[in-house]
């Protein structure tokens, strides 16, 4: 990818084109200013300096930026896992009768709620969440001492997802 960018840069230089895929941003943690590579589909004309700085922060290799990137990965993985979990349940509820429709909606709303809980924990809005889903099912979300993001599901035994 980096090599591809270099080739592209070189081509643009040869052709005398204005280089539009590179610009500068400042890491919000360490304050380092750097040249950033813009993701595909970014329209530089419509972006604010804040958005450039956010991108610089994501691409910076200082300790705090790396930690944040690592956390973003955990958050995305946990949301994906939760979505897959509920999608499977929803797909298993067959039929178009009102009860089935209602049940699918219920699980869809639970999924949205759980994703909100993951966001709350990973964005550091709350330190942990424990949610009683039904009389017999509970889920908790939080960080373990070693930094792993843990989702625990208790339902006829317990199950643990780690990210
Ligand atoms: Zn940094």
The ordered H/E elements are HEEHHHEEEE
Helix content: 40-55%
What integer is the average pLDDT? Answer: 90
Low-confidence stretches: none
Q: Structural class, from secondary structure content?
A: alpha+beta
Query: How does the overall form come out from the CA principal axes?
Result: elongated
Number of helices: 4
Summed up, the domain count is 2
Radius of gyration: 22 Å
Major beta sheet summary:
4 strands, antiparallel
Q: What ligands does this structure carry?
A: zinc ion
What is the total tally of β strands? 6
Can you put this structure into words, describing what you see?
The protein has four helices and six strands; from the N terminus they run H-E-E-H-H-H-E-E-E-E. The protein is an alpha+beta fold and 163 residues long. The protein has two domains: 2-61, no CATH class; 73-161, no CATH class. Strands 3-4-5-6 form a four-stranded antiparallel beta sheet, with helices on one face. A two-stranded antiparallel ribbon has the order 1-2. The longest helix has 30 residues, at 63-92. The chain is elongated. The model has no long low-confidence stretch (mean pLDDT 90).
């Amino acid at each position: 990818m980096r090599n591809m960018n270099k080739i592209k840069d070189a081509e643009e230089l040869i052709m005398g084109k204005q280089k539009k895929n590179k610009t500068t941003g400042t890491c919000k943690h360490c304050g380092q200013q750097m040249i950033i590579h813009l993701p595909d589909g970014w329209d530089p004309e419509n972006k604010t300096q804040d958005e450039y700085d956010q991108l610089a922060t994501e691409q910076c290799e200082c300790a705090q930026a790396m930690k944040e990137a690592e956390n973003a990965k955990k958050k995305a993985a946990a949301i994906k896992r939760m979505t897959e979990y509920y999608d499977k349940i929803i797909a298993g509820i067959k039929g178009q009768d009102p009860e089935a429709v209602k049940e699918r909606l219920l699980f869809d709303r639970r999924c949205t709620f759980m994703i909100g809980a993951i966001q709350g924990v990973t964005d550091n809005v709350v330190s942990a969440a424990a949610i009683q889903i039904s009389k017999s099912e509970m889920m908790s979300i939080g960080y373990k001492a070693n930094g792993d993001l843990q989702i625990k599901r208790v339902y006829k035994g317990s199950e643990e997802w780690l990210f």
